Amino acid sequence: MSHLNSNSANALPASPAYWRVEGSLLELTTVRPIAFFSWNSQTFGSRLARRSLVLSMALLRPFLYAANRKAATRIVHAVLRGITRDRLDLLGEEEFEYKLKPLLKAEGVRQLKALQATGAEVVLVSQGLEHVMRPLARQLGVRWIIANRLDFRDGVSTGRLMSPVIRPRGIFARIRETGPDGQQSAARWVRALGLRGPKALASAIVPAERVTPARVRPIVYFDEPRHAEPFSVRKALNGKRVLLIGVTGFIGKVWLANTLMDLPEIGKLYLLIRRQKSNPAQKRFEKVMEESPVFDPLYEKYGDALGALLADKVEVVEGDVSQPGLGLDAETSARLGRVLDLIVNSSGLTDFNPDLRDALAVNVDSTYHLIEFIRRSDHVALLHLSTCYVAGARDGRVGERVRPNYTPAGVTDFDAEQEWHALHRLLESAETQAEGAEVTAALTRQALGKEHAARGLSGQALENQIRKNRVRWLKTHLTEAGIKRAQELGWPNTYTYTKSLAESLIAKHGDGLPIAIVRPAIVETSVEKPFRGWNEGINTSASLSYLLGTAFRQLPSNERKRLDIIAVDAVCAGMTLIAAALVERRHDPLYQLATSVTNPCDMGRSIELTSLGHRKHYRAQEGLEYWLRLRMDAIPVSKERYQRMSAPAQKMIIRSIQRIMSPLPMKKPLAKTERTLERVEKLVQLFEPFILHNEHDFVADNVEKLSQALAPDERGTFAYNTAGLDWWEYWINIHIPALRRWTYPLIEGRPLEARAPRVLRMPAVEHGDVVKTGTNGRTW
Description:
- With about 775 residues, the chain is an alpha/beta fold.
- The protein contains 30 helices and 22 strands.
- The strands form 7 sheets. Strands 10-9-8-11-12-14-18 form a 7-stranded parallel β-sheet, with helices on both faces. Strands 6-1-2-3-7 form a 5-stranded mixed β-sheet. Strands 4-5 form a two-stranded antiparallel sheet.
- Strand 8, helix 10 (about 250-260) and strand 9 (about 270-275) form a beta-alpha-beta unit.
- Helix 22 packs across helix 29.
């Protein structure tokens, strides 16, 4: 894709045809600095000062141009100092789309197209900023431009124009150059721009597409062995039998879809799916295939033949990874133990602070059961999905080394296996306590004291209410116990705590077995596979992103901290490489899939890109609310300022008003607002370890080595490349639109977009006829 890196840019045209924009295509494209300003400054004073400066420049501009047009052009652009390249690129698109595009001269466009039809390589020349001229050039199908370019340091404008400065046309030129034919010779432009010759003019040509510098990271081998033979994913996984656990999850579905699309050579994919009450595993799988958009490319490729492909390549196995023996019957367990080459475990409970019973069963117990299954099997390897954030509360570089019995707090003599057993004893103790006399008496008082309870609640009705209260009490008690223990040991939540315990169990009980731990960072929207812009669920950063698109403006964060987000298709590409390495036994014990080292994007930039993504959406809407929202960007602030001026302070004001009005015989008018602010506070508190504290830099060298070793003919399909991703393009044109399509409706309680009904025809094994299953399309 052209937006990924600068290597996509072609060589400069040998004999370009220079085309003047002003006069032929547009009347005027002089920069209007006020159009490039929005309310992203942190204080009212700085906004007022910048607007005052813009107004002063507007008044002085005619006199400056009369004195010296080149110097005046530099001075006028100085007001853009301090604005980021990301913001200027988006505002430039807005300026063209909503203001200049309607003013394009039809005859000038026609003559330009006629010149292009002759095969000429056109270069647009304009006194406007490159940020405005790029969308114009793309609209016209022109690949090269000469325009005014600002100097940037660390992505922020210095306010200085780079040479050559394209000064405005003079008074006589405005009269002379008004026709639709904008073609002018190179010699004419050399004179007009005051350049030394044609070479200086050619050096001013830049691509019309948005280009980001390619980040090149050398791969260095020190003591570790280096394999001389090329690494082939197709050869390694040809005919292999793989068990996938967690296919109903976000990563699992994408990995399955990509594998079926890209690896027809694979032997068999077994899917371990848990039965849900009366809903068997096979029906659950068919429902996922029919309803999830992630499989749209497979339906487009295979059509009605998809059912036959699935019957040949996929076998659903009913089981439960949280149970001993994976919940399999003896015959199935023995069969899989003989034939399997690899297990991919993408299952996991990703809620930050779930019930401790669920977290232990899914994240820790299941890992131990997998290790036991592998030890009894013939030759199977394990790819186990963890998370980068097992690092916990610490700063600095996080290497790719398994650390058994690790705690971020550095607790001495910590034993993960003993901790695991102690947690199970805690569960038993809590269940006994919930049935005890003291808790029962408290729950009884609670049931009798409920405002909505019927008068004289007794007998079976009272028992039922007590039972419900007991279930609620036990869940709350164990959730709080998990959070407390995790934070004592240095983890921010129960999720990272239990995932780290699982890694320690692998290090101890999996010693000598072919196992690779894979740690992704924050997994988000796809770039290309299964299609551009796929996301699902609200367990990652979607809720925080949604919040930044509302009237909430001040997010407590460390703007220098790197927010480690990685696209789901990059994660799946890394998993496929690691799976092939495991089969060939050339794997490392630990792989991190992250961007904080290979392609860093700090919190300050992440917040601005999120705001710009929302701005692009609101700019296309009509109404006062959207007009206000696109001008109110979120900004990173300190924790102190957040508490003093944002949700916590607003909640205190609301509560004060509620107390004053409490004697009045009326409902609390601001109760809903108070609850909303409480939810905002809890959400921000939940994400603080990831946006404010703990400056992690996750090294991801091991998967880069695998990708570099790939056979050249497989790099286009299986390469792992996070260094080439353009965050501006990803955030504004892929990620935020995907969240608006797939995730924000869930947050707002709205249904997702309606989809046409889809039928999956699976050949029946028993009777040889075709079984039709389908959906009416209402789910999506």
